Amino acid sequence: MKRRDFITLLGGVTAWPLAARAQQPSKIPRIGFLQRVRNENVVAFLQALREAGYVDGQNAVIETRIFETTLDRVSDFAKELVDLKCDVILAASQYAFVAAMKATTTIPIVGIDLENDPVSSGWVKSLARPGGNFTGLFLDLPELGGKQIELLKEVVPRLSKPGALWDSAIGEAQFRATQTAAQTAGVTLHSLSIRGPDDFKNAFDHAAREQIDGVVILSSPLILERRSQIVEWTIRARLPTISLVTLFPSSGGLMAYGPSLPDMYRRAAVYVDRILKGAKAADLPIERPTRFTLVINVGTAKAIGLEIPPIMLARADEVIE
């Protein structure tokens, strides 16, 4: 994908000359950051904050809480950030921002999510004017599922029984959209659902029994976190894959088509900056990615015995050797 209170002196302030008061240092912003794991996305967000002028420990305080697989602690971490009186909270994933929204209705929250529609989920009033204290960056583009199957069929023309690896805790809408796209493409999509870290083996075993011939990897924090395990299994099974997350091919996955998560985190830093400069979350439109990247790992293609069509390589935004 990859952290302390400013003390103001009390008493006598109203008697100081206006010029003297103007010279006093302004309040150091406190930025909350609630994220599942430390990864490339965290690095991208922190770097973008630095570029915007917020340096942790110098002129800003960044309170980072990483909850990993301890989902039962997300609410506690969100409450900690609220109790610390953060000026704004970046909450990445549905788990994080739902917990943050339950913890506060006043502190601005910037969310990042690939799986849900924020309006139909009831988190915002509209995309243009979210209302309340929540805004952010959401994907919610079901047609990507059709594009992924189309790309997978270019690599495997005889594709007939692809599987979809998805997180049933948060990815129902994404899976249903991909299922509809599969029907349109004339292939039978097999559900490889997971909900927790212990479910991957069952999903992989089910894929082996059904003799699937390709895998569409949908998005979730858990799936991103376990991408090395997923890549290892698919290469061993000689299965072509396509992921929604462009970080997969750099870990050994075959292909990805989707938005750049690091870019979304950099955009989230822009939202944080605007809020710290006075913008209201209620007035900041929900932003959707507009650029989608095709990444192909030709080394993985060779490892599983596939030849990527030259025309497809020519269309790729990035080719990993």
Briefly characterize the structure.
The protein is of the alpha/beta class. The chain has helices spanning 18-22, 40-51, 74-83, 94-103, 143-155, 172-185, 200-210, 221-225, 227-236, 261-276, 298-303, 310-315, and strands at residues 30-35, 61-66, 88-92, 109-113, 134-138, 162-167, 190-194, 214-217, 241-243, 255-258, 293-297, 318-320.
Draw up the topology in text.
Blueprint: H1 18-22, E1 30-35, H2 40-51, E2 61-66, H3 74-83, E3 88-92, H4 94-103, E4 109-113, E5 134-138, H5 143-155, E6 162-167, H6 172-185, E7 190-194, H7 200-210, E8 214-217, H8 221-225, H9 227-236, E9 241-243, E10 255-258, H10 261-276, E11 293-297, H11 298-303, H12 310-315, E12 318-320
Parallel strand pairs: 1-2, 1-3, 3-4, 4-5, 6-7, 6-8, 8-9, 9-10, 11-12
Antiparallel strand pairs: 10-11
Helix pairs in contact: 2-10, 3-4, 5-6
Write a structural description.
Strand 3, helix 4 (about 95-105) and strand 4 form a beta-alpha-beta unit. With about 325 residues, this protein is α/β, with parallel strands linked by helices. The protein has two domains: about 15-140 and about 260-285, Rossmann fold (3-Layer(aba) Sandwich); about 145-260 and about 290-320, Response regulator (Rossmann fold, 3-Layer(aba) Sandwich). A seven-stranded mixed β-sheet has the order 7-6-8-9-10-11-12, with helices on both faces. It has helices at about 20, 40-50, 75-85, 95-105, 145-155, 170-185, 200-210, 220-225, 225-235, 260-275, 300-305, 310-315; strands at about 30-35, 60-65, 90, 110-115, 135-140, 160-165, 190-195, 215, 240-245, 255-260, 295, 320. It is elongated, with a radius of gyration of 22 Å. Helices cover about 35% and strands about 20% of the residues. Helix 2 (about 40-50) packs parallel to helix 10, helix 3 (about 75-85) crosses helix 4 (about 95-105) and helix 5 packs across helix 6. The protein has twelve helices and twelve strands.
